[in-house]
Amino acid sequence: MRARNGGWPRWGADAGLVALTLVPPLLSQPYVDTSGAAWSSLAGHEAVAVVVLVLRRRIPATAFVVGLGALVAALAGSAGQDAKLSPLVFLPLAVLLYSLGSYCTSWVRTGLALLGAGAVIVTGLWLNRMTAGAGEFRGGLDILAALAPMPLAWAMGFAARTRRALLAAAEQRVADADRAQRLRAAQAAQRERARIAREMHDVVAHSLTLLVVHAETLRARGDELPGWARTQVDGLAAAGRQTGGELRDLLRMLRDPADAVPLQPVPGLGELEVLLESHRAAGGSVEVCVGTELTSLPSPVQLAGYRIVQESLANARRHAPGAPVRLTVDGAAGHLRFEVVNGRGARRGTAGAGVGLGLVSMRERVDALGGELTAGPTGDGGFRVVATMPLETAGV
User: Fold this and answer.
1) 0.85 exceeded by the pTM?
2) Domain for residue 90, yes or no?
3) What is the pLDDT of residues 309-350, one digit of tens each?
4) Per the count of CB atoms within 10 A, which of 145, 166, 277, 297 is most buried?
């Protein structure tokens, strides 16, 4: 990230490039000309080259023209004093041409830079002819021979820019395809949720509404029923209304996940006593041992604990009617532990009751909180459910 924003990695690369470009002319100059005029011209050129090499990414066209001007001035000035510079003095110009092709995205600026470069070269050759002495200090074919390969540097830079553009376009196409795939998956999931919501509304909600209506009808004629039946009907009506409210919240969430705020409060361990009373009203018995404060626990743990106790009590009523149930809730070492144990039923359970998904649902809730659930028969013919959930990962 820092390399993109001009941090130390980029500055380090620039420093390395400047050293590799400017040090070779300094090392080779003693083998060409050791006069003071040659060293003065080389030092002036390299001072300008340092600046333009650092700025070549930001202003590639300007850096190229200024760098070329400094080179022409150094060559013409040294020739005018009968001094000669190392041929490696052309290295910064090659780097600047590469940068022009790689970083200058405007063809207008590139054209103007090349026209300006041509004018600078013509001016330099004229000055060289006017000021230099006869012989080897007069530029001409030797200068043009050094400049001839330079367009290859621009071509390499242009190829690098084209490759970057192709890679960016390919990455954009991949990103667009990934977004389109995610959108199609989200739309398919939404259609499936809507289909499930329709089926649940047409089947489950309709049957549940009829159940509540029949229960309310029986309540209206409660004086014709025995006392035990009135209690059962009251519990049936209350359970039907509660389940109906929860079902409406579930249907809303299935139809629109963004509208997942429940219309009624989410059940928690504060309603645990009401749940136990409904079990007792249905003819069951519960022994409760709570060793920790329940209402201050995180909401996800409270909801999971409520559903685990609810499902365990329902399983006990279905498969072991009349069996005593023992509920133990305690917390230690940052974990909350629920244990629900029921004995052997006083009579045979309801055949075919349930759909066999209660334990699966409990395990999924506990796994989602990073906990552990074990369930299985006991040695005396009963059943035992133990759920342990960490409090830290649940928001404590």
Assistant:
1) no
2) yes
3) 888 888 888 888 878 899 998 887 788 888 999 887 666 655
4) 297
